[in-house]
Amino acid sequence: MIIGKNLLEAKGVGVDFRINGEWLTALYNVDLSVKPGEVLALVGESGSGKSTFAMSVMALHNPNQSRVTGSIMLDGHQIVDATEAEMRELRGVKVGMIFQDPLSALNPLMKIGDQIQESMSAHSIVPKEQWQEHTIKLLDEVGISKPELVADQFPHELSGGMRQRVMIAIAIANEPDLLIADEPTTALDVTIQAQILDLIKEIQAEKNIGVLLITHDLGVVAEMADSVAVMYAGQIVERGTAEQVFENPLHPYTRSLLRANPSLDTLNDQLYVIPGVVPALSEMDHSRDLFLERVPWMQEAAKEKVSDVPAEPEEGHFVRGNAWKDFKFQDGYLEPGRGQKEAQSK
Amino acid sequence: MTELLRIEDLKVHYPIRTGFWNRITDYVYAVDGVNFSINEGETYGLVGESGSGKTTIGSVIVGLEKATAGKVIYKGQDVTKASSRRKIHYNRDVQMIFQDSMSSLNPRKTVYQIIAEPLHNFEHLDNNAMDKRIKQLLDIVGLPQRTLYQYPFQFSGGQRQRIGIARAVATNPKLIVADEPVSALDLSVQAQVLNFMKDIQKEFNISYLFISHDLGVVRHMTKNIAIMHLGRFVEIGTRDDVFDDPQHIYTKRLLAAIPEMDVTNREQNKAHRLAIEKQYQDHHADYYDASGRPYPMRKLTDTHSVAMTREEAEAAGVASGKAEADALAKGGE
């Protein structure tokens, strides 16, 4: 298992946005930690606050329109109240980021090589005379076969997979300890996706960096993650190791999501549908278990206040609220992992 | 099973023009000789990576794109030419659902206007009948009546996709071309839309051409599947043929690349994927001709066909592709 102290440690992180003069909570009491060499996957639907969290680690929220509370420690540096100048020193050096859409994240008017060197020029990690050499080495490292040629090309000349490789090269140019990958493969085909995921894994293992992988694709999580945090409506509803979350999911939301995924068992049937929709930001009451509003047969429990301290039914496996204890699918659906587990305990 | 639509040797080639005189110097072979047929009330899956030509096939079927060669046959009649479509109400019977619901709905029109458009075009209803029909359509897709005069931006992604579906089913179509209908949606919403598509299929006996790159969704939705690569089919079969007994290296590679929801056998899955990938790299020349495209198909069973390997293609005396295609393209000029 991974030992050692945490690279990223978020405690009670909250993010509020000012929308039309009103402060609305987008992220509520998020606890997370990433150790060196660990891949933590942050899973959730669009609007659940995954990217909001990533942006607050990079301190990219507009300070006039948002406020971040709680504590985010990145390798001993407090990010929440860091100044812009301090953050400039941390971005790129301590934490690198890969974005979903490489075409809009790369500068269309700049050659690939120059874009990689731009990130080096912001910090004095790599001496100037080695920039060229280091660029070629980086491109080679991310699996680009003709690095000299590609360094001299523009983003539009590359395929989607190649562009994402360039993004990774830029993100790791200053050898950061933490890599944030925000939906790195959503725009790619499955075969390319597999290659990019392998590449991230390879780099992560080789350099022993921590990875915060943000995705909505449960398959990607199952392939990549050491630990998983599931987000719903700005809160973490469940977190634990990948085995714990996939083999023994506890929170109703995790279990509903796993069931909604098309699989071999559902071939000719209807897919499971989670009724209702994610509440709007202004309608979120974070003192309750918000997902229960979408479970028609648990409306009583949905009104109860929920402790901000998650329960820990097994070591390292946290779940929010009490609903996980009584939650059952109403149609008597037997969840694959759970059924076996209960049979064993009998 | 009655056949609803048949595609015969469909080719779509785009000319590449270069030079001062803007002369045609080469072609992009977007779709290069595909054959398949869709039965009534069935879902046909079309799978391939981006740029493989799957959307082009869909566009030709609904008439947004012209075929360079080949035929589209609907209920036994050739509808390749636009003029021949009108007579048999083809444009009413064949509708489309788009991937990006935001850009396929006019932002300045209300839901009422959006759904009314195909009705205006094809059914001559008076105002009362129109109101009734549109309300009925909203019921079918499960949107409340009060949304009738709202604009697309006021809806969530899943709801917008349903407006798109309401528009597509407004004229009681026989075939709907669904181009990546759930790719932009979250898992829970995706399940709603897929279930819903299955429901209306049962109710109205609609056929779908389901275009997607998500093999999990395709396996869930379709009966027959075609795998497409570089403008040609590499494998056609029933769902079981393709998923349980893949023959072509590209199909195997696609299947191996799907992330498995299986935490415990992660290493095994990865080893399997890498082995297939290596095989794909090493034996590429056995499966693709000199111009880099797959060889023609051969039949394995009644339902299952696969693109030939080089040996088979040579034995069958099929020309190496490029020369033949060039000749054809020139002939079609």
UniProtKB/TrEMBL annotation, chain B:
Pfam family, one: ABC_tran
Superkingdom, natural source: Bacteria
Domain ABC transporter residues, every copy: 5-255
SUPFAM superfamilies: P-loop containing nucleoside triphosphate hydrolases (SSF52540)
InterPro entries: AAA+_ATPase (IPR003593), ABC_transp_ATP-bind (IPR050319), ABC_transporter-like_ATP-bd (IPR003439), ABC_transporter-like_CS (IPR017871), Oligopep_ABC_C (IPR013563), P-loop_NTPase (IPR027417)
GO biological process, alphabetically ordered: peptide transport; protein transport; transmembrane transport
Keywords per UniProt: ATP-binding, Nucleotide-binding, Peptide transport, Protein transport, Transport
Molecular function GO labels: ATP binding; ATP hydrolysis activity
Family membership noted in the UniProt record: Belongs to the ABC transporter superfamily.
Protein name: Oligopeptide transport ATP-binding protein
Source organism: Oenococcus kitaharae DSM 17330
Organism phylogeny: Bacteria, Bacillati, Bacillota, Bacilli, Lactobacillales
